[in-house]
Specification:
Largest sheet: 3 strands, mixed
Structural class: alpha+beta
Helix content: 40-55%
CATH architecture of the domain at 51-132: 2-Layer Sandwich
Number of strands: 3
CATH class of the domain at 51-132: Alpha Beta
Radius of gyration: 25 Å
CATH topology of the domain at 51-132: Histidine-containing Protein, Chain: A
Order of helices and strands: HHHHEEHE
Strand content: 15-25%
């Protein structure tokens, strides 16, 4: 019985050590980015900016969006955020929205959209992320 208690005490001590419950200095933290999206929400609800529900449901608009999306995803030089931008097509007008890492990504995605047949205009609303 005493042996079991000793073994249990050793296991508890090892677990506490592994969990870092010692007198370690706290890790420095970086300030979190503001989660206030009020300006973006106001812009999006104003009706003047295309949002995903504005996607045209006709065959042509859906095909344009699919071709642009495929061109973006196929470009492995683009960041994950850039590969996940919103592409909204309505009557041949393409709206690009979302964050990208650089002006180069913003321009590259716009060029991909312009190269797709049936596109009459590209409204590039992509936003370059602030450097951390």
């Amino acid at each position: 019985m005493t042996r079991h208690i000793r073994l249990l005490a050793i296991l508890v001590a090892a677990a506490a050590s592994a969990c870092g419950t010692g007198n370690k200095e706290p890790e420095p933290t970086t300030p979190a980015a503001s989660a206030d999206n009020t300006a973006v929400n106001t812009r999006d609800s104003s009706g003047t900016t295309a949002t995903p529900p504005d996607q045209g449901e006709n065959e042509t608009d859906l095909a344009i969006t699919a071709k642009i999306r495929q061109a973006i995803v196929d470009d492995k030089a683009l960041s994950i955020n850039a590969q996940n931008v919103k592409v909204i097509t309505n009557t041949g007008i393409v709206t690009l929205r979302g964050p990208v890492k650089s002006q180069q990504e913003k321009s590259a995605i716009e060029e991909k959209a312009k190269q797709v047949a049936g596109v009459t205009k590209v409204d590039n609303q992509l936003e370059i992320e602030a450097a951390h």
